[in-house]
Design goal:
The chain is 28% helix and 25% strand. It has 204 residues and is α/β, with parallel strands linked by helices. The chain has a six-stranded parallel sheet with strand order 5-2-6-7-1-8, with helices on both faces. It has a two-stranded antiparallel ribbon with strand order 3-4. Strands 9-10 form a two-stranded antiparallel sheet. A hairpin with a 6-residue loop joins strand 9 (148-149) and strand 10 (156-157).
Length: 204
């Protein structure tokens, strides 16, 4: 479990924490846990999410087990700089959907003395590094990679497997569309889908 580092009052310097992993790995749960602890410590906390994620309404992030916390929807990462000005702890959820400037924005916030906690998918459904997350991993002080459980073999799941492929990278959904898989089961699924697609081509 991640334990907060001791935060000296002076010199005031902040830091970045990234919580990453596949879908259903508990990223948002972990983000909410840390933010709630900061709130108990009487720190001024604010949470942002990209406006693309409207699954649960404009002003809330809700984790998969319905533990929720209020969040402000923003369309560009640069907006966070101004909005976060008077806060000490900044939470950012679904960070993979933000623009690539998020890494720079987060570093400015940290330099300004803020603790920035970022949660996001490290890979898209194709298994490729997702949006600004790779850059954030490079520049952050603390990284926590959380895992889901692969329902096919019971080992740790690192990949987000999309059951139906339609080419749209940002396709929001729940367990009807995606499932967490380990590397091996993810690869088997990909090969099976490729085989099916080829068979369909032959029929046409
Ligand atoms: Zn598996």
């Amino acid at each position: 479990m991640f334990l907060e580092p001791y935060m000296p009052q002076e010199p005031k310097c902040g830091w970045l924490e990234v919580i990453c992993g596949s879908m259903f790995s508990g990223k948002t749960e972990e983000l909410i846990r840390r933010l709630k602890r900061a709130t108990i410590a009487n720190q001024k906390v604010i949470i942002f999410k990209p406006v693309v994620d409207t699954r649960y309404g404009e002003n809330a992030i809700v984790s998969h087990d319905s533990n929720s916390i209020k969040a402000i929807g923003v369309s560009k990462s640069i907006e966070i700089l101004e909005l976060a000005d008077s806060y000490e702890v900044i939470g950012i959820d679904e960070a993979q959907f933000f623009d690539l400037e998020l890494a720079e924005v987060s570093q400015k916030l940290a330099l300004d003395g803020k603790r920035v906690i970022i949660a996001g998918l490290d890979m898209d459904y194709l298994g490729k590094p997702f949006g600004p997350i790779p850059s954030l991993l490079a520049v952050s002080e603390y990284i926590t990679k959380v895992h889901a459980i692969c329902p096919h073999c019971g080992t740790l799941a690192t990949h987000s497997y999309r059951k139906e492929k339609d080419g749209d990278l940002v396709l929001l959904g729940e367990k009807d569309l995606y499932e967490p898989r380990c590397r091996g089961c993810y690869s088997k699924g990909e090969q099976l889908q490729l085989k099916k697609a080829k068979e369909l081509e032959k029929e046409v």
